[in-house]
């Protein structure tokens, strides 16, 4: 399993890094991840017996990253307007249903999927268009994925104290601390991509490392609820796309906000 994880991770990261220097190509790759991630998310819900508007959600989810790639902005934050319109359209669709059972659940889970997968991950595309966007992308991905790797390696070797067995039966406190240590190491290795002091990098490593672990635990909670081990099987040793991006879903929007607003 460890060998599969390493080989798959190297291949996936190599593909992602190779697109960094062509913003439109990177945007299309993120769009592909969004489509597959949304499909996996809705399939998990269907496994639990929840009715969703899967293809409607995927369709709306595609529009968000594509609007960024083609620089379409009806308003400054037009995607929020678009999501609001999607919600209204979903509500109008309910008048065609023969029964009212499950209406709120179907609408809520569809909108949540769009926000959780498409909107959150699309911040990677936004980041690419910032000054030194390629460097910022490299930094956030290195910090986040180093945290994932560290949590797995340290947890599998030294993990004894269960962190949250109700959420994830295999995650340990030792693994979580190892993940934070590796995230900080990843931040130091990112020094050439971002012009920050080492104290600043240490803060980013710990902060983003913590957010990444919260993202991982959040998806574990959803999988636990839906009674599935992995969101999919597209990546040998890693699981599905959603399993691979769960930590980035939390770090990408926060890091974008940090770089574009706080440090502006």
- Helix and strand content put the structural class at mainly alpha
Indicate the radius of gyration in whole angstroms.
19 Å
Question: SSE string, helix = H, strand = E?
Answer: HHHHHHHEEHHHH
- Order of strands, widest sheet: 1-2
The general outline is globular
What is the residue-averaged pLDDT? 89
Which consecutive residue ranges, at least 5 long each, have pLDDT under 50?
Answer: none
Number of helices: 11
Domains (count) = 1
Count the strands? 2
Could you tell me the strand content as a percent range?
under 5%
Write up what this structure looks like.
- This protein is mainly alpha-helical.
- It has one domain (2-262).
- Helix content is 72%, strand content 3%.
- The protein is built from eleven helices and two strands, in the order αααααααββαααα.
- It has helices spanning 2-18, 23-47, 54-69, 78-93, 103-121, 123-128, 133-158, 173-189, 198-226, 241-245, 248-262, and strands at residues 162-164, 168-172.
- A two-stranded antiparallel ribbon has the order 1-2.
- The radius of gyration is 19 Å and the shape is globular.
């Amino acid at each position: 399993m460890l060998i599969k994880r390493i080989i798959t991770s190297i291949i996936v990261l190599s593909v992602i890094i190779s697109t960094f220097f062509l913003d439109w190509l990177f945007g299309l790759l993120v769009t592909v991840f969004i489509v597959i991630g949304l499909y996996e998310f809705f399939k998990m819900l269907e496994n639990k017996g929840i009715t969703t508007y899967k293809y409607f959600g995927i369709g709306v989810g595609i529009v968000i990253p594509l609007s960024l790639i083609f620089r379409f902005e009806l308003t400054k934050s037009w995607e929020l307007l678009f999501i609001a319109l999607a919600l209204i359209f979903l509500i109008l669709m309910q008048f065609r249903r023969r029964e009212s059972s499950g209406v709120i659940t179907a609408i809520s889970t569809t909108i949540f999927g769009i926000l959780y997968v498409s909107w959150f991950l699309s911040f990677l595309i936004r980041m690419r268009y910032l000054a030194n966007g390629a460097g910022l992308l490299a930094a956030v991905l290195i910090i986040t994925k180093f945290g994932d790797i560290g949590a797995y390696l340290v947890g599998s070797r030294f993990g004894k104290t269960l962190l949250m067995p109700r959420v994830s039966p295999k995650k340990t406190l030792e693994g979580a601390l190892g993940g934070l240590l590796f995230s900080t190491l990843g931040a130091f290795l990112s020094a050439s991509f971002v012009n920050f002091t080492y104290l600043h990098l240490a803060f980013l490593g710990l902060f983003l490392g913590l957010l990444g672990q919260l993202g991982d635990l959040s998806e574990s909670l959803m999988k636990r609820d839906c009674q599935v081990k992995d969101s999919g099987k597209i990546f040998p040793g890693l699981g599905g796309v959603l399993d691979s991006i769960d930590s980035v879903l939390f770090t990408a929007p926060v890091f974008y906000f940090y770089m574009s607003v706080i440090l502006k």
